[in-house]
Design goal:
Helices cover 43% and strands 11% of the residues. The chain has helices at 6-14, 37-51, 107-125, 139-147, 149-158, 160-183, 203-219, 244-247, 266-272, 286-289, 292-304, 325-338, and strands at 56-57, 73-74, 84-85, 132-137, 188-193, 229-232, 254-257, 276-281, 311-315. The protein has a seven-stranded parallel sheet. A two-stranded antiparallel ribbon has the order 2-3. It is globular and about 60 Å long. It starts with 5 loop residues before the first helix and ends with a helix.
Length: 341
């Protein structure tokens, strides 16, 4: 079939139409550079062009959605050593009042908008345009990152009204962040939730503290975008702990999860949802522990078992930064070779 542009290829995959080759993307953090939006855009653009990626998932650092609330943080600026919060954010009840309305054009959130703008500009200047999606955390995920698991779970049980107040504020701030990213031209969002898992809570609790606020954020962008991914994060390999079956009904046309180590598999997922499936790469082991040839086999294995349409190849979550560049390249070459369905 005729050669497609990257945008045509991604749109065809989303719509379950034939593609000249299956779309491919990778998304490692770029920790040495991700505190400077200009430098981050420059380095991400180099990574994008070297591997000829079909779309860009922007990679703000993992605590970008919490820093503007003022937690004490330590940053290391080294690959795979991510920033951490070093002191409890909630030491007394009044500390919940530090979760305040923010202006997403300023501070750390504003830097991620600049990063998105710069990345899109670089792609246009190079005449190498592809879809760009911005990472956005669910409000409950942001609160979890800010106050910690123990504090959050205790508060849900003991002072739910305080949690709801915090989530309402975070939701409004997240929607503002979404709007600012739309203004600079992103094509959609990578909506990431880390607590949609029965390890943390049951369905009733997630209804109240998760989905209610998730949908407020998603409904703020779904009508103005065309490429939206739901990322279901897992911390354990037991697929029965994932809320996959409920989150596939969220607004969005793509779903990304740890299909190679937590499940469900591509084949199992296709029986559950007709959304475009993004995965096939086990980010936990394959890139930095396999040889070039083993990466080839890993990709071939995924594509041999995948549906013929409605898929893209990518990691189940963030790629490790210490992955040899030749292994990233092997994944790209293998997808091009075996991804001509």
């Amino acid at each position: 079939m005729k050669h497609m542009t990257k945008t045509e290829r991604v749109k065809a995959a989303i719509n379950h139409e034939p593609v000249d080759r299956i779309p491919f993307a990778l998304w490692p953090h770029l920790t040495p550079y991700d505190q400077d939006p200009d430098l981050l855009a420059e380095m991400h653009f180099k990574f994008y062009t070297y591997l000829d990626l079909d779309f860009v998932k922007l990679m703000p650092f993992g605590l970008h959605s919490v820093e503007d609330y003022g937690p004490v943080m330590e940053k290391y600026y080294k690959p795979d050593i991510v920033p951490v919060i070093t002191e409890p954010f909630i030491k007394e009840d009044s500390d919940w009042d530090k979760i305040i309305p923010l202006d997403a054009s300023k501070g750390t959130l504003g830097n991620q908008v600049i990063y998105a703008k710069k990345m899109i500009e670089k792609m246009k200047e190079a005449d190498d345009v592809a879809p760009v999606i911005q990472t956005v955390f669910s409000p409950l995920t942001t609160l979890f990152k800010l106050v910690g698991e123990s504090c959050l779970m205790d508060a849900i049980k003991e002072k739910p009204e305080v949690v709801h107040k915090a989530l309402a504020t975070i939701t409004a701030n997240t929607i503002d962040y979404v709007k600012k990213n739309l203004e600079v031209g992103v094509d959609g969002f990578f909506f990431a939730t880390q607590l949609a898992n029965y390890r943390f809570m049951n369905d009733e609790t997630y209804d109240e503290f998760g989905e209610k606020y998730d949908l407020e954020v998603m409904n703020a962008y779904i009508d103005d975008t065309w490429f939206n991914v739901i990322h279901i994060h897992s911390f354990t390999p037991e697929k029965e702990k994932s809320m996959f079956q409920r989150l596939v009904n969220y607004p969005g046309n793509c779903i990304n999860w740890h299909d190679r180590w937590a499940g469900p598999t591509f084949a199992e997922a296709r029986k559950i949802t007709d959304k475009c499936l993004i995965g096939g790469i086990n980010e936990e082991l394959h890139h930095n522990s396999m040889t070039f040839g083993e990466v080839y086999g890993h990709i071939k294995e995924a594509l041999d078992a995948a549906p013929d349409t409605g898929i893209m190849v990518g990691p189940g979550c963030t790629n490790y930064e210490d992955t040899p560049l030749e292994n990233f390249l092997a994944a790209r070459i293998a997808t091009s070779k075996y991804g001509q369905k």
